[in-house]
Amino acid sequence: MKNRIRIVAAAGALLLTAAPVYAQESTEAYEITAEVNVEESEAIQSGQPEQTETGAEKKTNGNAVGEAEQTEKTDAGVTEQPEEEPAGAWQSALEDGTAGFVERLYRIVLGRPSDAAGKADWIQLLKSGEASGSEVAAGFFTSSEYRKSGKMDAAYVEDLYQAILGRTYDEAGKQSWISLLESGVSRTGILSGFTGSQEFMGLCRSYGITCGNFVSEEPGDQNAKVTAFVQRLYREVLGRDGDVNGLNDWTRLLLNGEATGAELVADFIGSPEYREKETENASFVEMLYQTMLNRSSDPEGKAHWCSQLDEGCSRYEILKGFIFSEEFGRLCEEYGIERGTRVPGIGGESMRDAVARIAAAEIGYRETGNNRTKYNQWMYGYDASAPWCSIFICWCVNEAGAGDSIQNTAIASGYRVSNMGSNPFGAPAYAFSSVEPQPGDIVFIDNTGNGVSNHTGLVVDVDEDYIYTAEGNYSDKVSSCRYRRSNGYQVFGSGSSSGVHIVFYVRPDYQR
């Protein structure tokens, strides 16, 4: 059958989007459409026993079988002709094509003649259809015997050229593959690119075996640009290369839409590993320039941000300034990821404190019309006119990146409750006499004096005398209120109605 396969070319190395997408950050990619015959082959069965180093290790995981076409080009766009393999005694003495294919892998990849038992096993896998040529080649390159050779990336790529393409490398192509490895793509991902090439298909045909397709399933090998974004965060923020598990985990979140560029940056900066560095403000600002703007700071800009920090502005607020910059937006576009707008608390700030900080920053915001606010626009998706005290809370929690921590059903009349047995936010409820209130707690307020809560707000600060709140839809705006502890948590302030008091409060388990 025939498949049409989209191919992306980058700096001398052509990589597939039918398999993982590989492209260098600084290279302008172009597309070619190739029509190829796809030879059917059966995926290798899992669970085969691993051989000792005297033979080859059998592949134990199956991969999607399919073939892709790939060519290597020079900068001028001219296809280079592969150099023929030098003839040797071991080549001329081969019994048949399958045996010759296996023997050359022993000689080139492992650097030794085959052992009889190991060679027989590989031949049997190929002849029975249990393994394709690409899977057998992958078995050699992923074997413990090859891994123990300790070869550097450059030598690994050179071995791939000889074993998979049957020729020596061209310098531009070699450097492209090395750059992909340095950006975080694994050796298995690079191997997948080589075994999907047109040259390897031709090599397999010359030995009379099915080429098949070996595909890496690691998240970090699916899209090189996204992986490179994660790798640069490791280098710029933490000062080291990413570990395999970390690269895969963060890349998976981006690929699945479970995290944005803004959230990843905040997570790295808020990590214990970065906080333990105890960086000075100047170093923190310089890191933000390099990480988020991809350039060194300019003196005027750096002085501005450092001045803000020295005057008491939090690192969280400074980070937001960089996140919403045009330069960071363009950087995210270059890497093919969503920038996002939600920013969890950083620099040791808990999610709870971040919620309180965001709520406090909204104090003074006024309706644009009768019950018309940006919070309703966010909740309903249009300029709705509706009571919005509880919607304001949901918005603040969502802005902090903890939207799943509460139930947004608070937009209904569920907050009109008179006891601690139920509440629309789905979190444990407490009386103030039993647990000390904290910033980020949600308070339920009786503002009519009938003992039933009909209003809600967020605790933004506490001291020994008062509880301070930010409350949406209070006098047509987000208002700042304080409740005196000594008189049953009644609202304190000029012009306040008598009897307005907190009935109870809830403490969500804020999680991103």
Please write out the topology.
Layout: E1 2-10, E2 13-16, E3 30-37, H1 89-92, H2 97-110, H3 116-128, H4 133-141, H5 144-147, H6 153-165, H7 171-182, H8 187-195, H9 198-206, H10 224-238, H11 244-255, H12 261-269, H13 272-275, H14 281-293, H15 299-310, H16 315-323, H17 326-334, H18 351-361, H19 374-380, H20 389-399, E4 429-430, E5 442-446, E6 455-462, E7 466-474, E8 477-484, E9 490-492, E10 501-506
Question: Which characteristics define this entry?
Answer:
512 residues; alpha+beta; seven-stranded antiparallel beta sheet; three-stranded antiparallel beta sheet; 20 helices; 10 strands
The number of helical elements comes to: 20
Mean pLDDT: 76
Sketch the major β-sheet: 7 strands, antiparallel
Helix content: 25-40%
Calculate the terminal CA-CA distance, rounded to whole Å. Answer: 47 Å
- What is the C-alpha radius of gyration, as a whole number of Å? 31 Å
- The succession of helices and strands, N to C, reads EEEHHHHHHHHHHHHHHHHHHHHEEEEEEE
Spatial strand order of the main sheet: 4-10-5-6-7-8-9
Outline: elongated
Structural class: alpha+beta
Q: Which regions have little confidence, pLDDT < 50, spanning 5+ residues?
A: 1-94, 408-422, 493-497
Q: What proportion strand?
A: 5-15%
How many beta strands in the DSSP annotation?
10
